[in-house]
Amino acid sequence: MFNKILIANRGEIACRVAATCRRLGIRTVAVYSDADADARHVAFCDEAVHIGGAAARDSYLRADHLIEMARETGAQAIHPGYGFLSENEGFAEGCAAAGLVFIGPPASAIRAMGSKSAAKQLMEKAAVPLVPGYHGEDQDPALLRREADRIGYPVLLKASAGGGGKGMRVVEASEGFEAALTSVKREAQASFGDDKVLVEKYLTRPRHIEIQVFADTHGNCVYLFERDCSVQRRHQKVLEEAPAPGMSEERRRAMGEAAVAAARAVGYVGAGTVEFIANQDGSFYFMEMNTRLQVEHPVTEMITGQDLVEWQLRVAAGEALPLAQEQLRIDGHALEARIYAENPDNNFLPSTGKLRYLRTPPAVQFMRGGAGETGGHGPAGVRIDSGVREGDTISPYYDPMIAKLIVWGRDRDEALSRMRQALAAYHVVGLSTNIAFLQRLVSSQAFRTADLDTGLIERNHDALFPAPAPVGIEVIALAVAAVLDSERRERRIDAADRHSPWTHAGPWRLNGGARRVLRFGIAGQTLEATLQAEERGSTLSFADQAAPFSSHCVNDDIRIDLGTRRVHGQVHAEGETLHVFVGGRHVALEWLDPLAHAGEAEGEGGKLTAPMPGKVIAVMVEAGASVTRGTPLLVMEAMKMEHTISAPADGVVGEVLYGVGEQVGEGEQLLGFEAKA
Ligand code: ADP
Ligand code: ADP
Ligand code: MG
């Protein structure tokens, strides 16, 4: 086994590879661009080398430089992860020439599978079933059109060198063929530097089912069953699962054996994925082979209990496969959701920015949470593969994936409910994400009943992109609870003073008025909630609902009782913005605290004034008191609401001009204040 390897990648996959290395006692060298100096993968590895500018071509795609760095740091092998150089035969060759092991297949296998048309010609010889189509060398437009007419519409035009869902066009009828061909060729040339295309029958309502294969240098080749990756947007995977719902043992074996035949046909070594497109009746056809570790490999790990990166390392070090075909078993069901920084409501446009707040569901890090593996913390079977932490930035330079959320259950239903729970506990503030969309997706009738095909998202558009639900009383109640709690905490600054009335104050002061109105802004609207104090408790009214209300807060975690209903949620406050997370929803409310800014703005002039006419109901400081920024100084009651005037900065209180019970006019000075220089 290796002592030290270099990981020529970034983000979650670099961390993923490093985690296994750490477990196996292999030292790791991370590489990083200008944009990634503080990235998680750099901190996670034993050493790190700076390799250039932020743009991938200036860093992560610099094959020769990466090889040089591997040699310089004494690494014996390079793991390419996925993307970047993982399917670059020149890089694999370059490693070998430099005396380094490329942790991946031989260059010849990458080359054989690199062109979709050449791969199909090979597969044809290996008797692997192919989608009816044309994948020949002759690219004469008239010939291509004749082939399309022969195959029958709709057909799919594909860039032979394509990947990542790019360079594909559906042609509905012969008339549209020429225009589609021109545009696919243009895109293929621009994206892949090769305008060769193939034509194939476009299947309606197909499923994407792929087989994980593994081969070693001793002539062994096995399949680790299938993954269903049918849920896609723009031909890109969104949810993946294993095993595929509805798969019979017989079909599983047939697909597994076809995949092994495909791998053997190109002398494959290491981890690979053979992608098939399957009809609803179960018939399946070879689509392409990805000659690397796949993004969605964790679902296979969860159901087989195997660590595929460990297998990759062992095979690359010349060992035989750890298990034979008959030793491999499927245990339970696993789902993966790709959490992206993107806006589903704006055509899934990537979003960039800082992860200002990040809370994740309790995870059993790394392997499946089967019996005995949970370590006693959190629900079993939740795994998070991520390359970012709170405070990190999703930059425009790389893939906007935040994390992969992977869950395991004894069956699909159990995995599904775990996924729903885990998504509900995944909280991000700072950029838009697809979390709420994923929640709707996994909760949709189509996905729950495994009515899967690649058009699932489009077909269920209305259910998956509903008009925003109106804000309900439980969201408002959580926001109110958070406001009351923050006021309570501010007052507690004075708690050491046993005579302070605030030490004994309840949710708010009864003599300050039994009714309080709190206003929240959302999407240009103002929502109004009323809290009415009664002898035996308080009542919260919002819209046309009212219920007895009480709350209990522990930091961001809030429990509210609304009559007989108990609701748990989280509220993260950023200034006046309250991010309420409840039941899988994230609602951002602006707390319209009329005094919050008034006090601060006036404070700069050395005096604190009343923003509206009202009555002073408490004075917490004396002239000459030295206070820190945010210390509550005085409380006013105006329009049946209480308002705390706080110190706008660290400083010293001047003259106190009003006492408890006195009326104050709007704009009147309440106290003097001298900010510390
Ligand atoms: P999969 O079928 O595993 O999703 P894809 O071909 O879509 O495979 O790509 C795998 C991952 O690698 C994706 O997350 C994609 O964003 C990333 N990727 C692909 N090509 C590149 C590239 N040239 N540079 C950086 N990342 C890439
Ligand atoms: P890429 O290299 O971009 O991953 P693939 O050939 O694997 O390209 O195709 C990506 C996706 O496009 C598939 O997962 C499937 O959803 C869709 N697709 C590909 N071929 C067909 C086809 N013949 N009929 C219908 N859909 C297809
Ligand atoms: Mg593919």
TrEMBL record:
Highest taxon in the source lineage: Bacteria
Matching InterPro entries: ATP-grasp, BC-like_N, Biotin_BS, Biotin_carboxylase_complex, Biotin_carboxylation_dom, Biotin_COase_C, Biotin_lipoyl, CPAse_ATP-bd
Keyword Ligase in record: yes
Residues covered by the Lipoyl-binding domain: 598-674
Segments forming domain Biotin carboxylation: 1-462
Gene3D superfamilies according to UniProt: 2.40.50.100, 3.30.700.40, ATP-grasp fold, B domain
A Pfam family recorded for this sequence: Biotin_carb_C
Keyword Nucleotide-binding in record: yes
Domain ATP-grasp: 120-317
UniProt keyword terms in alphabetical order: ATP-binding, Biotin, Ligase, Nucleotide-binding
Cross-referenced SUPFAM superfamilies: Glutathione synthetase ATP-binding domain-like, PreATP-grasp domain, Rudiment single hybrid motif, Single hybrid motif
Cofactor dependence: biotin
Protein name: Acetyl-/propionyl-coenzyme A carboxylase alpha chain
Organism: Cupriavidus respiraculi
Gene name as annotated: accA1_2
